[in-house]
User: What shape does this take?
Amino acid sequence: MPTVLVPGVLRGDAGGAARLEIAVGGTLRAVLDEVGARWPRLERRIRDEGGALRRHVNVYVDGTDCRWAGGLDAPVTARAEIQVLPSVAGG
Amino acid sequence: MSPSTDGTFDEVCAMTVLLAIGTRKGLFLATSDDDRRSWRVGDVQLSGHAIYAVAIDSRRTTPRLLAGVDSSHFGPSVALSDDLGATWQESDIAPLAFPTDAGVAVERVWQIAPGGPAEPEVVYAGTQPSALFRSTDGGRTYELVRGLWEHPHRTQWGAGFGGQAIHTILPHPDDPRRVLVAMSTGGVYRTADGGASWAPSNTGVKAYFLPDPWPEFGQCVHKVARDAADPDRYYLQNHHGVYRSSDGGSTWQSIADTLPSDFGFAIVAHPRRAGVIWNFPLTADGERHPVDRRCRVFRSTDAGATWSPQASGLPEDPFYPVVLRDAMATDDADPAGVYFGARSGEVFASRDEGETWSTVVAHLPDVLCVRAASL
Assistant: This one.
């Protein structure tokens, strides 16, 4: 099943977990929907209430930025590794 | 309590005042136990988040702190504390979110305002984009006030440099059906039916930057304060222009004649005395420094007919920073305390209604908002 890697800054919103096994796959959207159902605070750090990825959060599916792989429709295999990383931004 | 020279106990000396300071990089809580002569400033809380809105809800035995928490990466939220900042809570479900059919997302929480005494669990929040949200669970979760969101004017509300937001919410203290809000840009709107319908209330407020400078709406109102003694009297700091309304916001008259400038962001009212207000004038839209580069607050004790500078104890060197719209506040003590913070990270306090000032803290991140209350 796909695995979501949670950055340290967001682990408090995932019950302290660094890795989340998600029993849903197919697309990144489906994975994030499941994340939202189980860890709603974590999911809303990644997507806004309209479902869009937040501008300064990057999500990689097997090492590829999802924005270059179909966005939320990026395919997610059963063994996919989904890494959430805050972008380098701020002042 | 401590015994005073005549042998009685001095209640005033036992009073603790809490000062909440929202900055671009977190929240700071300062407390004073000696009638605001000295302050202890705690370590940063909600670190890394911009705190554009903070409220101290004193309707509870232990006041509830509410903060609009804005992460540049992870979006906006509202956090609350029932132990004066020792711990913070955030609802599992999104405290503030537009319904799906709105087609937009909350970008920032600009204002949190507890409701009136008749509705102890009601808290309002104003957001960017311009929308009003209402909580009936003490500020944990909020619902969009659709009557304002669906107003036919909404598509014509504009955005200033800071974004398009509702930054002022003034629930009427005696009638929970009446609420006044203000936004940049858009102006003042009022409801008298609990939020079902809203009407613009900008008659007399100028919008010099529009072809018609006296429009029904579209003004860039920076802040509105309510007179504590007369809930139908308001004071308004405009994008150029300072006004008073004595008819609940229906019409506005200029009170800028004796101010050194009619530009600025903040305006606050005394917690009890009629007609006593403060602001922090800046030179002009195109020159956003304090007038004459002097750090001065201006006070009026006659509802804006005349104004006088107050600067005793404030920096005497040339002073350039701006005081933002929510970075000035009064407390509820007697005599009233007045507070303001600057974008340079300094916070100043007066324990005698502006007569004298002292520095609470310096070198903070940009100060975005301050609120104060006795505990």
Summary: Chain A touches chain B through 17 residues (CB under 8 Å). DSSP finds two helices and seven strands in chain A.
